[in-house]
Amino acid sequence: MTQTIAFIGLGNMGGGMAANLLKNGYAVRAFDLSEDALAKAEAHGATRAASAADAATGADAVVTMLPAGKHVESVYAGEVYGAANPGALFLDCSTIDVATARRVIEAATDRGFDMVDAPVSGGIAAANGGTLTFMVGGTDTAFEKAKPILSAMGKAVIHAGGAGNGQAAKICNNMLLGATMVATCESFAMAKKLGLDPQTFYDISSVSSGQSWSMTSYCPVPGVGPQSPSDNGYQGGFAVGLMLKDLKLATEAAALVGASVPMGNAAESLYQLLANQGEAGRDFSLMIEMLEGK
Ligand code: NAD
Hints:
This protein is of the alpha/beta class. It has helices spanning 14-23, 35-43, 52-56, 69-83, 98-110, 124-129, 140-151, 165-193, 198-205, 213-216, 240-257, 262-279, 287-291, and strands spanning 4-8, 27-31, 47-48, 61-64, 89-92, 114-117, 120-121, 132-137, 154-161.
């Protein structure tokens, strides 16, 4: 029998993810506060719901793709828990703080529902193309139930451990990414000042111990390495504002557990500066221009 998914939050990421559920044979009941997002979901074959509670009513599973923890908590506590079928599965794919993720899952579990946190790696293109990576936190039972639904929207589904561990993996990974991008940018900027050609520095460092994904898959210098947002005026890709959001989540989580994250703190300050310069919407590899003093 066709499974029905309530999909709440059909923005840049959720719109493509819901379209992939539809392509893979699921029925989708869509709800978003934005009329535009709802109209696009309908055009892909989703049924429009009048509220999050209406979407969840009678659904086999609820997927949320919302901006932040406060939205996730209010949608589940305010609407979904009360409306969902007994036995419905909940999957929150938003990037939110670990503490809220754990609280929302605990409240769902107390009411007898299985729930996972399943944030994603991959941007809008991966959401549209069904090639996201999902990092999943939750019990073995909840993970096994979630896997086929997540597989319809992504290429990899990895169990990271108990509730909240998907969010923990996501923010630790993105803190590492933010720090390696800053380090890659400052190294290229300094190499240039020392009279080293960027391509020559790339040829050496990309096969030496300074190599990282930020250098060899996403080089911040235009015309060097494989095609990346730097070749396109730093448009598209992963926005400065989203990197800043993830770094804030990382440093807040670090403070809560007493982890020492000096590199994460430095990356957060630098991305805040870049955002303050009005660059929140451009790709995060734009950091190189700030460090070059452009
Ligand atoms: P978005 O702002 O485009 O979409 C969020 C949608 O949620 C909007 O359409 C908004 O109207 C809707 N919404 C907000 N509150 C709501 C509510 N109470 N009920 C129903 N709908 C509501 O954001 P996005 O880029 O799609 O990102 C969604 C999540 O995915 C975020 O947590 C983000 O950090 C994460 N993420 C984004 C990217 C990316 O490249 N955009 C990559 C990885 C993860």
